[in-house]
Fold:
Amino acid sequence: MRQPLPRLHAITDERIARRPDMDVIAGALAEGGGSDLALHARGRELTGLEHYDLAFRLSVLPSQLFVNDRLDVALAVPTAGVQLGHGSLPVSAARALNPLWWIGVSVHDLAEAEAARLSGADYPVVGTVFATASHPGRAPLGLVTLQQIVAAAGALPVIAIGGMTIDRVREVRGAGAYGVAAIRALWDDAEPAAAARRMREWMS
Structure:
């Protein structure tokens, strides 16, 4: 029996994975986010060993662990879910590996949202909603398109990503998003526990 899908997703990148204080910040985020926080082990430029080490270190925390892209790593540590990108294996392959995983798919427009729903994904991660330094060349979708994607996703819970701040959580919630995902707004906050707590409360 799997736990409910968290509403708050704290996603790493290569920079965060290699920070000497990563474990301290992750612990603070877990304290603030509680059971409604997912910690995502992600880093496209990480080696397999680095990705495994990151996932293992996050797996000891009380929050749910999600592994992005690397299904081999997800099989090697206690993992609640996976998020698949465009270069990942299909949803059906991930489902065959572990039918209890939450399986998310990254989507960037209405067509991809519909494809995610038809593929059997459990949730789409939709972005980028607002302009973000993580994808400087990508035009933001905006709240109107987010609303359209929420409608296209049907019953699937939509996680919004891209330029998320505490102030914008209510906006995306009002647009129909089930939850939010963030990198800098959580990992780079001077008080990560408080940031996670506020985001979690505003999404509830």
Observations:
- The beta strands are 8-11, 37-41, 64-68, 81-84, 102-107, 123-126, 159-161, 179-182.
- The radius of gyration is 15 Å.
- The mean pLDDT is 95.
- Residues 29 and 192 are 6 Å apart (CA to CA).
